[in-house]
Write a structure and sequence with these properties.
5-stranded mixed beta sheet, 519 residues, 3 domains, single chain, Neuraminidase, 35 strands, alpha+beta
Length: 519
Amino acid sequence: MENTGVKVVVAAPTRTLVSQAEKPDMVVNEAFQVAAMIEKLPPSRNDFKNYLKHKRKEMKLEDLEWFLDSGATRHICSAKEAFATYTPALYDEDLFMGNTATARIAGIGKATIVPHGLLFSPQMNNSATITIAAADTAAVKRRKKLDQCHQYQSLIPGLPDDIARICLYHVQPSILYSVCHSWRRLVYSPSFPPFLSIYSLLKPSKSEENSVQFANFDPISAKWNLLPPPPLNPPLRLLLRHRSFISRHLPIQSISVSGNFILLAATTDPLLPALSRPLVFNPLTRKWTPGPRFETPRRWCVAGASKGVVYVASGIGSSYNPEVARSVEKWDLKSNCTKYSCNHHDRNKVWKWEKMSGLKDGKFSREAIEAVGWRGKMCMVNVKGDAAKEGIIYDVGSDTWKEMPEGMLVGWRGPVAAMEEEVIYTVDESKGALRKYDPESDSWIMILENEMLKGAQHMAAAGGRVCVVCGGGDGIAVVDVTAQPLSLVVVGTPVGFQVLDVHILPRMNQLDSESKNEC
């Protein structure tokens, strides 16, 4: 196959080529990726596709990203030398931009990368070509009609799909998503390596109703999607508000374990535990599964996980019981189960709660407490914020308890999360300071301080990102702790909702009906 001067030679049987492509250290040639993306441009861009194919200068991925169509119907540029043809404007016209600014249009013409009308405005402060989404609805509809899904097309022309999939697995999902519908479907298919996304509980921001929604934010499409509700009869009813607790929400406790979202504890009328067993949501199957029954259903308890094992401790049942307040139980999700699913009936036989060494007292039943799994231990404190608190550590291997190191306890001033159970991060909710724990010096090291982190309520860490629920639940601050310099972006919540907590898990697979709607 020959395309844009790049030759791909298949000189071995398909099975041999596939086995070579599956090697973890395989690197897909960048020129090959560029050629494949150009080939997958929609039929409405044939002229543009031909132009790219015949460029003499070799293109790189970063060059191609500038060309990928944003769906805009008008384009503007401040560099007059970029125009191939140019005509001064015959009348005064202002361009209104998304940030409420305006710029005077000085002329109109054509450029190679924008074959239709390109607006010229010397007031723009950079020479990059900027696309402006104008209200040309007729043009948008024509393009959508041309790009609708037709008959099945191969992922990469000239290659069997099994080989094409292996090649595309090495391309960033965000790039695949922007190129064509078939690649977009591939990103959400069960065969594509799942990227990480955000999962949260949402509540109406201006309503006192006791209603919550389970939702997922997809970073590739930048969309919030609702999870299917747990299939319970009667439906699950979780209390957020009660006249006995006017100034606070009643806690809903959930954790993420081995790629699953698990709802563990909450309150229902009349101030009783809402769950008789945990509820497990698997993003890859998009299904809820009931876990083993609690010996004692709880609320306001300690909840956490380490190495695929769920732990609950202390808390309150239907009423305060000192035995329950000191008790500890664990549930191993790995018991005779595959990574993605287990037979429902067998699972109820295998999955069970086991009693562990109890706490010395019931001081950890005062709050809903997040136990953080870290290097084979569970770390927890009994009070949130700056108040005087006690901290303890549970060794999951030896089933023993010990006091928390003084430096760790002193710096524990807000929500805490561990990255892959190796590095602990915390946010000082009063100062908006993100720190990580150094066990060698028993101290917390400053990473960054930002106004968006003040009043932090919950946090999660995975894949090099730390996600923090902003004060008031009006957004989720995402900090890339691997970037230099560090970067912070805020994910806005759906209109009319607030975030109650946050988790980082694999993205949801897409249903066939949703794949068709994407077309």
